[in-house]
Design a protein that fits this description.
Number of domains: 1
Strand content: under 5%
Largest sheet: none
Distance between the termini: 28 Å
Number of strands: 0
Helix content: over 70%
Length: 90
């Protein structure tokens, strides 16, 4: 999960998208505590959304961010959505 965020920070958007997608798939198969799995899925979707927007995949990115907020209203996830909407003038 950290590599997803680190790749976004390092502007390796394609790599970040791939790692976040893999994290989301693994979380769907996880049998861990439900609340924690939902929170981590939300973070992974949010990070992938940011990576996609930075890679000019705006529709997919904003979709990920909206899904992330629906799963968890965490302040970081909400912030990422708000910032993306401002960047995209939505």
């Amino acid at each position: 999960f950290n590599s997803c965020a680190l790749n976004v920070e390092s502007r390796n958007y394609e790599e970040a998208e791939a790692i976040c997608t893999q994290a989301i798939a693994l979380l769907k198969q996880s049998h861990g505590p439900r609340l924690k799995v939902r929170e981590l899925t939300s973070f992974a979707l949010s990070n992938r959304g940011v990576a996609r927007i930075k890679a000019q995949k705006d529709t997919a990115g904003i979709s990920d961010l909206y899904e992330a907020v629906q799963i968890s209203k965490n302040s970081l996830v909400t912030h990422n959505l708000t910032r993306a909407k401002e960047e995209l003038s939505l």
